[in-house]
Design a protein that fits this description.
The protein is an alpha/beta fold. Helix content is about 45%, strand content about 15%. It has three domains: about 200 residues, NAD(P)-binding Rossmann-like Domain (Rossmann fold), CATH 3.40.50; about 80 residues, N-(1-d-carboxylethyl)-l-norvaline Dehydrogenase, domain 2 (Orthogonal Bundle); about 160 residues, 3-Layer(aba) Sandwich (Rossmann fold). It has a six-stranded parallel beta sheet, sandwiched between helices. It has a six-stranded parallel beta sheet with strand order 11-10-9-12-13-14. The protein binds uridine-5'-diphosphate-xylopyranose. The site of uridine-5'-diphosphate-xylopyranose (UDX) has 19 residues, from helix 10. Pathway: Nucleotide-sugar biosynthesis; UDP-alpha-D-glucuronate biosynthesis; UDP-alpha-D-glucuronate from UDP-alpha-D-glucose: step 1/1.
Length: about 450
């Protein structure tokens, strides 16, 4: 199958590379010609594990190529995927201008009988709109429009693509259903379930799925707060909930509030769609508000529970919105650090991959190359991203280098007893108190008792 991919961003590149791995011939186009030059030189403009090597392999095999020309990319294609951005507008809706521009571009070069597939996350009714635009552009053209949402997580995009839970194909005619089924045959033959449905259903599935996952996170975050107040431990509680097959174990890890390029934007667009159609999504509207407030509340909690004052030094470990990505969009750190700074605290920060991106958004932060440099002389360490290297921190080294010994683990990545054994006061999310069990000679061990729940004054939110 000859496939054109419009958009060489994170979704377009992952999809194009994986289609090539599945045996298709793929041409990828982007309006950003600098990006195309970079890709032609074999460089991936984003950080995504395994993708760069796979992309280079596919280019070398001749299955994947990049093109500056829309005509050259789309001309011979049986199927053209639109994987362009759908940024949020200030009112929470999505801006479809890139999708519309891509639709106009493909309509110019598409061969008769070809299918245009929207990969971008779009609101219900977008396929209909794209069909209208293309029909206006090229009246005589015979074509179909379909929806095929992606469910790729940053950091595991290739695995998610090649071993998905399901493939959702939204089609309103037989031609596109047959063609898209053929594209995905290598995966469905291996047993991946396929949901073949209408375009509107497929568009809605994507938003509803992300909204539901975000709800699970919002739920466990509130359960964690309740655990803290009642003396329970959110770890076993989440395990006990998640073993119910109707609920499932994933997305039940408490954290500083979800972020990233998808959940915040998609939940807002979902809520806006509900408002626009007179079917308000009250649960999601509340979730959006609670998730935002959580980040600010945790910042205030750090100040209050860490007994931090003007001039205190805080080491923030983790700027990415989650581990294994350099993406800092809607990351908790971007919200929490400015609040700490506003309270007069000095912030040092470390992230193994996302520091360069974060520098563009954060001011007056002291950037360090290692977590230990960040912790050097700090009054408190705050873990905001669950990077593997933070899970394996040398706690003895950390304790020795800090000025006061308070650790806020807002990803629950450390073992509370191990932390306490190094004379550190440990405050995590929804876990029982563990007081420092050893006092070390350097610095003062905080008088704090070692858990969120023993310290009053949960921040106003
Ligand atoms: C998400 C969806 O998972 C994916 O299907 C969709 O296509 C794109 O959006 P992504 O944004 O890459 O993927 O990240 P994901 O792993 O889903 O995490 C989103 C946010 O939720 C992160 O901030 C993460 O830290 C947070 N999270 C996730 C939790 O706080 N707890 C959890 O248990 C899971």
């Amino acid at each position: 199958m000859h496939i054109a991919m419009i958009g060489a961003g994170y979704v377009g590149l992952t999809t194009a590379t994986c289609f090539a791995e599945m045996g298709h011939d793929v041409a990828c186009h982007d309006t950003d010609s600098e990006r195309i030059s970079q890709l032609e030189a074999g460089e991936l403009p984003i950080y995504e594990p395994r993708l760069e090597e796979a992309m280079q392999r596919m280019v070398a095999s001749g299955k994947l190529r990049f093109s500056r020309s829309g005509a050259n990319c789309v001309g011979g294609a049986d199927i053209a995927f639109l994987a362009v951005g759908t940024p949020a507008t200030p009112d929470g809706r999505i801006d479809l201008s890139q999708v519309e521009a891509a639709a106009r571009l493909v309509s110019r070069w598409l061969k008769p009988g070809a299918v245009v597939v929207i990969k971008s996350t779009v609101v219900a009714g977008t396929c209909r709109r794209v069909r209208e635009i293309m029909a206006e552009e090229r009246k005589s053209l015979d074509f179909s429009v379909a929806a095929n949402p992606e469910f790729l997580r940053e950091g595991s995009a290739m695995e998610d693509f090649l071993c998905p839970d399901r493939i959702v194909i939204g089609c309103d005619d037989r031609r596109s259903a047959l063609l898209l089924s053929e594209v995905y045959r290598p995966l469905t033959e291996r047993g991946t379930p396929k949901v073949l449905t209408s375009t509107t259903n497929a568009e809605l599935i994507k938003y509803a799925a992300n909204a539901f996952l975000a709800l699970k996170i919002g739920f466990i975050n509130e359960v964690a707060d309740l655990c803290a107040e009642t003396g329970a431990d959110v770890g076993p509680v989440a395990e006990g909930i998640g073993l119910d097959r109707r609920i499932g174990p994933s997305f039940l890890r408490p954290g500083p509030g979800y972020g990233g390029s998808c959940f915040p934007k998609d939940t807002c667009a979902f809520a806006a769609t509900g408002r626009d159609h007179g079917a308000r999504q009250f649960l999601i509207e509340t979730l959006i508000e609670r998730n935002e407030k959580r980040k600010a509340a945790l910042a205030r909690r750090i100040i209050a529970q860490g007994e931090l004052r003007k001039g205190s030094v805080v080491a923030v470990l983790g700027l990415a919105f989650k581990a294994n990505t350099d993406d800092i969009r809607e990351a908790a750190a971007l919200r929490i650090i400015p609040i700490l700074q506003k309270a007069g605290l000095r912030v040092k920060a470390h992230d193994p991959k996302a520091a360069t991106n974060a520098r563009q958004w954060l001011r007056d932060v002291e950037w360090t190359d290692t977590a230990y440099e960040a912790a050097h002389g700090a009054d408190a360490v705050v873990i905001l991203t669950e990077w593997e290297e933070y899970k394996n921190l040398d706690l003895g080294r950390l304790a020795c280098t800090m000025s006061r010994r308070v650790v806020f683990d807002y990803r629950n990545v450390l073992n509370p007893r191990a932390v306490a054994a190094h004379g550190l006061t440990y405050l995590s999310l929804g876990r029982p108190p563990v007081s420092p069990t050893r006092k070390t000679t350097r610095g003062r061990v905080s008088a704090l008792t070692g858990s969120d729940q023993r310290v009053a004054a949960p921040a106003r939110d």
